[in-house]
Amino acid sequence: MFFRNLGFVSLLSLLSFQAVAEDDRGLYLGAGVSNIETDKSSLSDEDSSYKVFAGYRLNGYLAFEGAFVDLGQFEDKNLDFDGKSVQASAHVGFPLGDRIRLYGSVGAHAWDADGNASDDDTGVDLTYGAGVEFDVFRNIGIRAEYEVLEVGDIDLNQTTASAFILF
C-alpha cells in the first residue's frame, strides 16, 4: 500500500511540470491512506482505510472540502464496527511562507456503520481536526492531518497522509 501511494505521488509530481498555477485558489482533488483508532481500547483494527477528497480553495486562508472515508473494521468479542463516511467541512488556513499551510477544519459527516458499535446504523455527526499542507510544486502538494469523527457514542481518531493536485 505504501509503495502504491509513493508511486501515485511520484506520478503527480512528474505531471506538475506541465501546469503551474499562478495562485493558491481553485479546485483540488486528492487521496490518501488513513489510520483510524477508537476510544474503545478493547477494539482492534483489522483493516486499512483510505480517504478521497475534493475541494475548492477560495484563497490561502479558506477552503471548502468534501470527502469519502472508508472507516475500516474494528472488532472484539462483543463489539463489531465496519463503516464509511461522507464529509463536508470548511478549512481555515494560515500560510507560512509560499509552500506550507497550517489549517483547522470543522464540519459534519454522514456515516453508515455495519455491526453493533453504535445504536444506529446511520447518522450525521460532527468532525473536526487540524493539518499541515506542503506544496511540493505549485499545483501538487502533500498533507498530513488529524481528525476526530464522532460516530454515535464512539469517537474515531483519524490520521491521514495524502497527496493532492490543485487545478
CATH hierarchy, class: Mainly Beta
Count the domains. Answer: 1
Instruction: Using the alpha-carbon principal axes, give the shape.
Output: elongated
Distance between the termini: 26 Å
General description of the model:
The chain has an eight-stranded antiparallel β-barrel with strand order 1-3-4-5-6-7-8-9. Strand 6 and strand 7 form a beta hairpin. It has one helix and nine strands; from the N terminus they run H-E-E-E-E-E-E-E-E-E. It has one helix at residues 2-15, and strands at 26-38, 44-45, 49-57, 62-75, 80-96, 100-115, 122-135, 140-151, 154-166. Helix content is 8%, strand content 66%. The protein has 167 residues and is mainly beta. The chain has a single domain (2-166), classed as Porin (Beta Barrel). The chain is elongated and about 50 Å long.
Tags for this model:
mainly beta; Porin; 167 residues; 8% helix; single chain; elongated; 8-stranded antiparallel β-barrel
